[in-house]
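Batch manifest, entry 17 of 40.
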Amino acid sequence: MKRGDSDFTYDFLADRPQLKDELVKKVAGQFSRTPADQITYEQITSNQNNYELREGFFHRLSTDASRNITGFANVRPGRFVLIANVGSFDIVITHQDAASVAQNRVLSHTAANITLNANESVFLIYDSVTARWRSLAMTGA
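Output type: C-alpha coordinates
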Protein backbone atom coordinates (compact mmCIF):
# COMPACT_ATOMS: atom_id res chain seq x y z
CA MET A 1 0.00 0.00 0.00
CA LYS A 2 1.28 3.46 -0.81
CA ARG A 3 0.42 7.04 -0.02
CA GLY A 4 -2.77 7.97 -1.79
CA ASP A 5 -4.37 4.53 -1.42
CA SER A 6 -7.65 4.76 0.45
CA ASP A 7 -6.48 2.54 3.32
CA PHE A 8 -2.98 4.03 3.65
CA THR A 9 -1.76 4.41 7.22
CA TYR A 10 1.82 5.13 8.24
CA ASP A 11 2.11 3.19 11.49
CA PHE A 12 5.19 4.61 13.18
CA LEU A 13 4.23 2.66 16.34
CA ALA A 14 3.90 -0.81 14.80
CA ASP A 15 7.07 -2.12 16.45
CA ARG A 16 6.56 -0.13 19.68
CA PRO A 17 3.58 -1.83 21.39
CA GLN A 18 4.18 -0.30 24.84
CA LEU A 19 4.34 3.24 23.47
CA LYS A 20 1.34 2.51 21.27
CA ASP A 21 -0.70 1.33 24.30
CA GLU A 22 0.25 4.48 26.24
CA LEU A 23 -0.75 6.71 23.33
CA VAL A 24 -4.06 4.89 22.87
CA LYS A 25 -4.88 5.59 26.53
CA LYS A 26 -3.87 9.24 26.10
CA VAL A 27 -5.96 9.58 22.95
CA ALA A 28 -8.96 7.97 24.67
CA GLY A 29 -8.59 10.51 27.47
CA GLN A 30 -8.42 13.35 24.95
CA PHE A 31 -11.57 12.19 23.15
CA SER A 32 -13.53 11.79 26.35
CA ARG A 33 -13.37 15.50 27.16
CA THR A 34 -15.91 17.73 25.44
CA PRO A 35 -17.25 18.40 21.93
CA ALA A 36 -15.30 21.68 22.05
CA ASP A 37 -12.19 19.56 21.52
CA GLN A 38 -13.17 19.38 17.83
CA ILE A 39 -12.16 22.74 16.40
CA THR A 40 -12.71 23.97 12.84
CA TYR A 41 -10.55 26.98 11.98
CA GLU A 42 -11.06 29.80 9.50
CA GLN A 43 -9.60 28.98 6.08
CA ILE A 44 -5.84 29.61 5.93
CA THR A 45 -5.06 32.11 3.15
CA SER A 46 -1.28 32.52 3.54
CA ASN A 47 1.70 30.55 4.83
CA GLN A 48 1.68 30.43 8.63
CA ASN A 49 4.51 30.75 11.16
CA ASN A 50 3.81 29.88 14.82
CA TYR A 51 0.21 28.90 13.97
CA GLU A 52 -1.91 29.24 17.09
CA LEU A 53 -3.64 26.01 18.09
CA ARG A 54 -6.56 26.51 20.43
CA GLU A 55 -7.10 24.17 23.37
CA GLY A 56 -8.47 20.83 22.24
CA PHE A 57 -7.44 17.63 20.52
CA PHE A 58 -8.94 17.55 17.02
CA HIS A 59 -7.97 20.49 14.79
CA ARG A 60 -9.70 20.78 11.39
CA LEU A 61 -7.76 22.98 8.92
CA SER A 62 -8.37 24.05 5.33
CA THR A 63 -6.60 26.37 2.89
CA ASP A 64 -7.36 28.35 -0.27
CA ALA A 65 -4.23 26.96 -2.02
CA SER A 66 -1.27 24.81 -1.00
CA ARG A 67 0.05 26.48 2.18
CA ASN A 68 2.95 25.90 4.59
CA ILE A 69 2.70 25.79 8.36
CA THR A 70 6.17 26.17 9.88
CA GLY A 71 5.22 25.49 13.50
CA PHE A 72 2.41 25.43 16.05
CA ALA A 73 2.09 27.75 19.05
CA ASN A 74 0.31 27.08 22.36
CA VAL A 75 2.67 24.31 23.44
CA ARG A 76 2.75 22.38 26.70
CA PRO A 77 4.59 19.20 27.70
CA GLY A 78 2.88 16.05 26.43
CA ARG A 79 0.18 17.88 24.48
CA PHE A 80 -1.25 15.48 21.90
CA VAL A 81 -3.18 16.76 18.87
CA LEU A 82 -4.65 15.52 15.62
CA ILE A 83 -4.31 17.88 12.66
CA ALA A 84 -6.74 17.13 9.81
CA ASN A 85 -6.83 18.69 6.36
CA VAL A 86 -10.57 19.07 5.71
CA GLY A 87 -10.07 21.23 2.61
CA SER A 88 -9.24 20.56 -1.03
CA PHE A 89 -5.66 21.90 -1.12
CA ASP A 90 -2.43 20.55 0.41
CA ILE A 91 -1.25 21.67 3.83
CA VAL A 92 2.52 21.33 4.18
CA ILE A 93 3.85 21.09 7.74
CA THR A 94 7.50 21.98 7.35
CA HIS A 95 10.24 20.08 9.15
CA GLN A 96 12.41 22.11 11.57
CA ASP A 97 11.55 25.38 9.85
CA ALA A 98 13.39 28.41 11.27
CA ALA A 99 10.49 30.67 10.24
CA SER A 100 8.83 29.60 13.52
CA VAL A 101 10.43 30.07 16.93
CA ALA A 102 12.37 26.99 18.06
CA GLN A 103 9.82 25.76 20.59
CA ASN A 104 7.02 25.75 17.97
CA ARG A 105 8.84 23.78 15.27
CA VAL A 106 7.92 20.29 14.10
CA LEU A 107 10.24 17.27 13.96
CA SER A 108 8.78 15.08 11.25
CA HIS A 109 8.78 11.29 11.58
CA THR A 110 10.29 11.23 8.07
CA ALA A 111 12.81 14.07 8.66
CA ALA A 112 11.13 15.81 5.72
CA ASN A 113 8.13 18.08 5.25
CA ILE A 114 4.74 16.50 5.89
CA THR A 115 2.24 17.10 3.10
CA LEU A 116 -1.36 16.58 4.12
CA ASN A 117 -3.48 16.07 1.03
CA ALA A 118 -7.25 16.53 1.25
CA ASN A 119 -8.71 14.33 4.03
CA GLU A 120 -5.32 13.35 5.46
CA SER A 121 -4.35 13.77 9.11
CA VAL A 122 -1.26 13.69 11.30
CA PHE A 123 -0.83 13.09 15.04
CA LEU A 124 1.57 15.42 16.87
CA ILE A 125 2.84 15.26 20.44
CA TYR A 126 4.81 18.00 22.15
CA ASP A 127 8.19 16.82 23.44
CA SER A 128 9.33 19.22 26.16
CA VAL A 129 12.83 17.70 26.32
CA THR A 130 13.65 18.66 22.73
CA ALA A 131 11.15 21.56 22.79
CA ARG A 132 9.58 20.44 19.51
CA TRP A 133 6.36 18.95 18.21
CA ARG A 134 6.93 15.38 17.02
CA SER A 135 4.82 13.69 14.38
CA LEU A 136 3.87 10.14 15.29
CA ALA A 137 1.69 8.76 12.55
CA MET A 138 -0.11 9.89 9.46
CA THR A 139 -3.36 8.65 8.00
CA GLY A 140 -4.40 8.81 4.37
CA ALA A 141 -7.66 9.64 2.71
